Amino acid sequence: METRIDRLGTVREDKLRQLRQIIADSEYIVFLGGAGVSTESGIPDFRSGTGIYNSDSGVKYRPIDIIAHDFFMEHPEEFFDFYKRKLIYPDARPNKAHKALVRLEKQGKLKAIITQNIDNLHQEAGSKCVIELHGSVFRNYCMDCGKKYDLEYVVAQEGVPHCQKCGGIVRPDIVLYEENLNHKDVDDAIKAVKKCDLLIIAGTSLTVYPAATFAQFLKHDRIVIINKSSTYMDLKALLTIHDNVGEVLDICVPKRKPSAPRKKTAAKSKTTSKTTAKTKTTTAKAKPAAKTATKAKAATAKTGAKKAATKKPSTSRTAGKVNDGKS
Fold first, then answer.
1. What are the tens digits of pLDDT across the range 194-218?
2. What is the CATH number of domain 12-258?
3. What is the model's pTM?
4. Active-site residue 75, yes or no?
C-alpha cells in the first residue's frame, strides 16, 4: 500500500526515483501547470520575488490592477502598453518541461494538460490534449464584430489595436481578473481530473481559483507537486519536490516507452507461431493426399496384373507390337 512521502523525509535522488516509479505505475495522468512551467523559457512568473507583480509596471498603476477587466475598459492605452511589454513573449520556446510532457502523451499515459498559462508553449512543443483555462495571447478578436486577429497584428499596431473591418478594439483572448473562465474549459478540466489515477501539479502556488480547487475532485491521494515554493497541498500530496519543473520532468519521464521492445518481441513470436502452425497444417493436408496417390497407384497396378492374367497367350512379336502402340 502506498504511503505519503513527506517532502522533508528523503533526499532529492530518492524523490526522483519515486516519481519515475509513480509515473510507470500510472495509466491516466493529468498535468495541472502554472507560470512556473514556463519560467525556464524566459517568461517570468507572477508572484515570486522577480515575478511580474513585484516588478516595475512602467506606469503609476500596480501590475495586478492593470490586468483586470475594469482597468482594461477604462484605460485601454495603459493596459496595452503594459500588456505588450510584460505579457507577450513571442520569441519564447518550449523548454524541457513541455518536451517531457509531449513524450508522456505519446507514450499514452498523459491524457490532459490543464494550463493556467497564456503562452501557447504546450501546443508549440507538440502537445494535443491542452485545456487553456486563461486563454492565449496568440488569439485576439474585435470586441464589436468578433473578427479574429493573430498576435503579429496586435504587436504591429501602435497603442490600442483596432479592427480593420469595423474599427472596434481588438483585445487578446485571455481571462482578466473580474472575468469568468470559459465554462466548457472548466468542465473539461474537472472531468479529466476525476478520471485520472495520477495528478501532477507543477509550477503553481495554487492560489488562483478555480484551478486551486481541482484536487478536491480526486477520489484518491495520488498527487505529485513540483514547485519551487510551498503550496497548501504539500503535506496532502503523495510526493512533493521543490525544484525546477523542467529539470525534474526531463529526468523522470522516459525518453521512450519502456514496454515497446517487449511488444515487438511478443508480436514476432506470435507471427512465428502462426507461420509454424500454418506449415504444420499444410504438411498434415499433404500427407493424406500422398497416401491417396499411393493407394491409387497400387490399385492401378493390381488391375493391370489381373488383365494381363486373363489374356490369351501370344507370340512375343505380337505382344511387342501391342506394347509399342500403347506405351
1. 999 999 999 999 988 889 899 999 9
2. 3.40.50.1220
3. 0.75
4. no
